[in-house]
Protein 1
Amino acid sequence: MTSKWLKRAAVLLALCMTIGLAGCNRETEDSSSESSDTTSEVEVTPHKVGYIFHDSADKNGFSGQMSMQRFKASNRSNMETCYIDNVSITDFEKAVKALVSDGGCTEIVSGSAIFANMLDSVSNKYMNINFINFGSTSSPANVSSYTEAPYQGAFVAGMVAAFNSDAQKIGIVADTDMLCPTAVINASARGMQLVFSDATLYSATATHDKEIENAIDELIKKGSDVIICYTESPHSVEYCEQKGIKYIGSLDYKGEEDKYPNMLMYFCSRRDSYFLAQFKQMQLDTWMPDGYMGTMSNGIITVSEALPAVDPKTQQESQKLIDTLVPKLVSGDALVFDGEIKDTAGNIKYMQAETMSDAQIMTMDWYVLGVEHLGSFREVQTELPPNNFEIKS
């Protein structure tokens, strides 16, 4: 066995001793999603929920997967839903008006974090409509805020990426339109540093497919031999496949893993149970504005098994890393951002005894030590053609 594998075995042993091995039920949905539909036993009021998506719901990207989760919850609750996709920030209010006036919707769900601030300002013009604001933590009178902790999955991804890297150089391409991209980058670095304290995480931000390609090309030039993909577009993993480089995805590939032979693992959000619970409350007229954080603890954030792309020499160790850490994140015994945290200049941002709050994590605008940010690869985009606000089901 080479010194490289001996070092990784020592890392695994140290992690197991520090964190503690435990069983893990990674993909268990919230038990509320498995409960029987009780709405047939009571008199219900008709409701219709309209979703607004930033990207196309026909692609297997973020918007497409959120729409599929909408559809699954709709089928299980008999709630009527519809959506408008490819909506820009400037057209968000027009989409709301179309869903209410033309679609007859009584509730609206924003399907992208980029709409969060816009919805808070639009909701007070529709006080008779209930809203679910994805990516927000504020809750006006008729708005429930719903956000998630994708950085928990990124923390595990950083560990697995480092354990399968020969160069000790990891890359991450992050979409600034996604939820808390800086926190996801920093969490990836924190996970990476549990394996190799002196490893480097190269980060780049990009949104559109050509930008993503340019970002990944630059990450590879820097010597990254594993790429973490955190983009709304599915093109990031597809391009890594074309380049023949190993990578980690952040969308749900359950049942389709065989299509991605270079994928080491993936972390994702499964919102079916959340939407189902919200729909039932609406049908029973018990819905109230509230705040909800999707985490590993409530089954929203999930992590896959180590996939066949993992080197056979590290397959068992990689899975042990996942089995070790995930249950601790679920139980709250392990935190992503606690202890001393330094920025890229070596300045102490948080002391050893401190733990960052959810609000501090979600609004991070600085990078932790070990991250080398290559900058934004976003280009000036031509204006999208006018949206005809077609309401689809």
Protein 2
Amino acid sequence: MRRYSNILFLLIAIVVAACSVEEKSHAEGESATYTCPMHPQIVQDKPGTCPICFMDLVLVSQTGKDNGELVLMENQIKLGNIKTMRVKSGSVGSNSILSGKLVLDETQTDVISSRAAGRVEKLYLKESGQTIKKGQPLYELYSEELLTLQREYLLALRQNQELGKENTRFSSFLEAAKKKLLLFGLTEGQIRSLAKSGNVSSRITFVAPASGVVTEVAAAEGQYVAEGGVLYRLGKLGKIWVEAELYPQEVANVKEGDPIQVSVEGFDKEPVAAKVTFISPEFRAGSQVVILRAELPNPNDQYLPGMQANVILPSPNKSALTLPTDAVIRDESGSHVWVQSGKNTFKAQMVTIGETSADSVAILSGLKENNKVVVSGAYLLYSEFVLKKGANPMAGHQH
């Protein structure tokens, strides 16, 4: 009986051991999943080669699936020209160049309104954006009131010619009639022509009081307008604004009154000196930029709204962790770099950037000195990660 008990105990021990081995093998089988680095759809439970590109399969754990890391093979690194460098303290002291645009000075605008009630017979300018010179014809107006004023002037002129020598008050009547015509928008030349011809005109041509750009055409031919009705809006070109966009990390480096240089495309001259006159206190709607504005002198109206310009901001020499500009990837999630965390292993790291020049950028946070950062091929790593993981490497990070 004791012998049968011993045999039964031995069989139970063997079964338990077999189950343990099976569970261990099953667990190892789950972890030993192999995939192709170039074709992640190829997955199998044992080593081998990819049937598409014939590369050796690698363990899924080596692809960084759980920790967000990306593992590349040696030939991938060579083909992608992946190069790293250690982060060092340096100076980002070169000038920052911003893309800007010339816009009208909103403080230098004129409203052209009808001097009398009447009908618009003709518009000489029918489109906004056109430039005009002072004295250039703008519109013709038919007005009964203007006809009456012309007749009054001619009557006063005849009375002064016939009776002015005997009574000086007729000259004052003539002067008053002339001032009325001037106040209603007629020019000295038009009044002289009226006096010379002696014929009233049913259509009076009104001219531009100043040079500028038509920003709005508010009337149409054949339209009846009241006295003071708006016909045109003009922007003057004696001074012009240049506007550029500042990102949050650049706002702290510039303030109102700072000197800047502006280079307008199409003018091969030295950059024009200007001063910052305004920095928007809020971000532009739907974006993360604020507007910088400076005022430029515009002799001979040579600069026109819409021209592209480069705004050059002098940057102070400051010591900070620096990287080549191409090492930093910027997208809607923020800015990040790729840090080498092991042999052929890379991981995306969120960073806060500061001053930026043409070839380098300051890193304010996210890295430590001597971290090995990818400086060539960062965008290839970004694309490879998205291809393999199907997600942004910065997804879930705190920005």
Protein 3
Amino acid sequence: MAGGEIVFSGMRPTGRLHLGNYWGALKNWVELSRAHTCYFCVVDWHMLTTGYEDTAPLQDNIREMALDWLAAGLDPARCVIFKQSSVAEHAELALLLGMVTPMSWLRNNPTWKDQLQELAKTRVGLSASKPESVRIIPSLGVTSVGSAFVRPEEDEGDVERRLVSSEGNSEGNYGFFGYPVLQAADILLYGGTLIPVGQDQLPHIELAREIARRFNSIYGQVFAEPKPLLTPAPRVQGTDGRKMSKSYGNGIELAEGPESLKAKIMGAYTDPKKIRATDPGHPEPCPENPPGCSIFALHKLYNSDEYGKKGWRARREECMQGRIGCVACKRDLLTHLEGPFRDFREKRESIERRTGEVERIFDEGARRARAVAAETMKRVRRAMRLA
């Protein structure tokens, strides 16, 4: 592995990845692995915080995601690729860090409240296009959704208490509430100093820093304080104009086949006010088309000097001047997507044909990760007088 800073990051195993995963994180991982010591973890224990009821697809999802990682360019010779559950020290350190983490830190975690809101939407199949079915509980920052989430006899205080109570729901379980402590353990176990995150994950990193500081203040200097690495990443729109997300069903997979790719592109959201090909279009977010055009967003990623002839700036001008229609624009985009998607699929299929390749990479990654984790835990136990 390279030298430099120590980078740690992980993904929950949800199966095949989409373009938002690639442009938002995976592409950056590949670049970081060329300059730094990197640990990239399949955080399968984190997956259980909300997905504990159905683990049947877990192993298949892990493998599918790993294939996408490797096909995208993550090289096990340059970084450590492993599964969280293969390194028991993650659980041990999370337990010990939990002893020094105040409950108030977890209750005040804004991303916990945000995820409660998303879970509420997911449970009842809420579409973001139906805002009339949503109301906000200000004291908790939680969205309540219709009769499926709010009982007639309840006021907002009742709903808040129920959401944070244990009723067998994901919102009430210990793992979901305490997952920032496990996340801190993931990072601190490897001395992670640079943590690539999006803006919405900054509270998690700050909480990990606070936990590290508190531990060090009680037991002496053991952990380095991690720093967030905010890297510019495009917001990839899904086929319906919203942010690309599996929960919205609007994703385009990295390994999308030619026919399904064509179907998704030809059916994607463009500009509802551009009725005729000669009408002026609104490709970028504006009052006339607030989300912006999903097709143009992909032109900006793939219609460049590398893959295109005219480039996305020329395409924007043609659209705004009514010199190209949406159907023609979509067909043009498909010509730019053909090469990179084909190359990705071929590389992925080549890796998949190597029997046992993914398993060998995970085994070797776990061996390397355990060696570092074991040394960290020796220092932790000595500091806490447990050894």
Protein 4
Amino acid sequence: MIMTLISPIHVNAGKFGQGDSSGTPGQWYEGLPPSYVDPSKSPIVFIHGLNSSSHTWWQENDMYDTALENGFETAFVDLYPTGDMWNNGKLLADKLEEIYHHFGEKLVIVGHSKGGIDAQSALVHYGASPYVDRIISLSSPHKGSELADLAYSSWAGWLADIIGGKNDATYSLQTGYMDYYRQQTDPHASTPMYTLSGTNWGSFGSSLYWGGLYLSSYGASDGAVTVASSNLPYSTELQVGDWNHSEIRQGSSTFGHFSDYLYETTEDSQAFGTADTVSTNHHLSDSFIRGGHYSGSTQETFYVEENVDKLTINWLSDQKNTTLELASPDGQRWNKFTSKTDETSFFEGSYHHSLTLDNPNSGKWQIKAGSISENYLLAVQYESLLNTALTLELDQGLNISIPTLNHTPYGPDRKTMKSTITMEYYNNGKQTSRKIKWDDLDGTPSRKLSKLGEGVYNLTIDLNGKTKQNKDFNRTIITSVYIDNNGKVLK
């Protein structure tokens, strides 16, 4: 950890590497000046992400050391750790102006995770673009994160609320809200942006494994953010590397991949414009979700269909020492779960109790839990042929349909399928819930949801039925959309 003091030239700059470990929003720090200041090298401003602070760049991280050793001037800004891109963008814009005048030249921003979004907000919406040459974002969820959708879903919302996972930042990172943000931002983006993203979420038992597993149906990810979300139509992708969400901010991991873009003489060549908005959105189904609160003990049941290659049970909890026992249809029992704290940032303060089984028996499974008092989320992940045979489609009219592949022998029997759709509508801090039963998927091609006004609609679709092999199955699909003041679905 760096324990140096900066020169007190600027009254708003703090003691570098000292003070409150959580950071003070609005504080910024200047790193030690390099032995020789190359005028061609731009000062770097580092921006932290969700549930983080400026200390993330030098505590257990060599990013600051690496930048200094390579002759770059540096600054580090503390924003609100759970603030949305609007409040953080406004605060950051003021700090960027100060830092620009302090160094006397244009800056390059390096933002980790949500820090890249806050940076773009500062430039596009709060007038900071004259002070910045370019933005380099490290695994920033520019299109939102499905983990934020999960945190605001009907099943996970209780746990997220208890542990503080429901906050302005997570709310704004729902994929539906980020579609709205992109509509407001992309047409006005003029500062070149460069992106890096990761594809490593570790092996079973690692801290980001479950996040990567949950996101796997949406494509490659680093355990918290997908590669697809890390890029924009007008950004330049510098590298997709074998990093997880924590490693990508390490200097020894990524500095060399973006260092060529830290010079004033770097030529930028990018096309700016509005991202395309699709009228229909598709989601695959590979998980089953349940959650709630209990005191003493509880149990949950779920079904496993035929030909499931792998089954992962994740019990996400606000308790570290929960007692768990899993029972298969034939009476086998498991009670040794791997426990890890959450590092996705979306459920910070919670614990993952996980177990993976190969080739599980089909039928009804049961998991029992015991604790004095517990808030929990059960997420069952299936590696199964059924996953690709079940999809969700959502169109501009807010009509939901669940098409299935009829040609596969492992697909669902549509005559047996039923669904419960839970819609959580958020507007101006108020939540409205709607629950719709859909018991005739075979006879009704789609269900139309009511538009309740402008805002975020978080949708939880619970499916159950039988496969063509007459085996029970269950799945949960979670997504979100934003409806603007004209009634248009931004998705």
